């Protein structure tokens, strides 16, 4: 899903009326505004290489694009770039008078529907949203996954199946781990049937389980497991520790704590390991960031964990995996530290 591009939304306008509308929006939200050379004002960027080139470049850099103008122009410019609804940025079109805000692309996973509603609220405009679940006043599985920062095996096919069932008014249950209940309560769950206990299911055609668990009890109906990314792993290791060993030990530690590998949110270690090939490959293979902390930052929390004088003399702190997991999880450590073959792994759960 398109959740990692850090820049604010890019806005494009080509007329004086569009510039006026862009200035209204820029006063209410962070925007990078682009316009033609003849309309440039303070706070606006020029269209390097022309409108089409600049907008296509922004498509690869920004999480969301806002175009003030005709929908057809946006479609013609961006059509060659369209790739996947789970990775394309949100694209929203606004008419020059600010009467309508149209969710054009990546409504759910990209967040265009939410952005459309927000922009319409700012302008007092009419939001135009055409995705089937929204039209039918239903939630959507991909939106729920986006809100929870969650992953799922077979995500694309699951989204198609579950959203179709919701739109068709079939009974789709929604169950979650107790510790995730508060987060789920803040999400859009319209159309789902709340389920309190897996061993006492109401009449359902299908079930979505929001969980960090590696395994669920046997369920005799179609079901999908949606896994929020909450688990963090602090890892210390000798220089040159191979990736296969790190991967095997982390997998074993996750299984021992009954965590689904999809729940992993980040891997952390000491700054001296920022170029450690095995750790870099491990994070890349699991599609999570690799974060490092200074010895000073880790030392502030080493008293919470067993410390090694050898490690302290070598890297400047007596413990690496525990303090790293502590910082990544805001102090929510899960289980004991694994120590094996020169590797230490401590897990935490960030809520």
UniProtKB/TrEMBL annotation:
Describe the location of the Cobalamin biosynthesis central region domain by residue ranges: 140-217
Q: Name one Pfam family in it.
A: CbiG_N
Question: Any idea where the Cobalamin synthesis G N-terminal domain is?
Answer: 54-134
Q: Where is the CobE/GbiG C-terminal domain?
A: 231-347
The signal peptide, as residue positions, is none
Q: What is this protein called?
A: Cobalt-precorrin 5A acetaldehyde-lyase
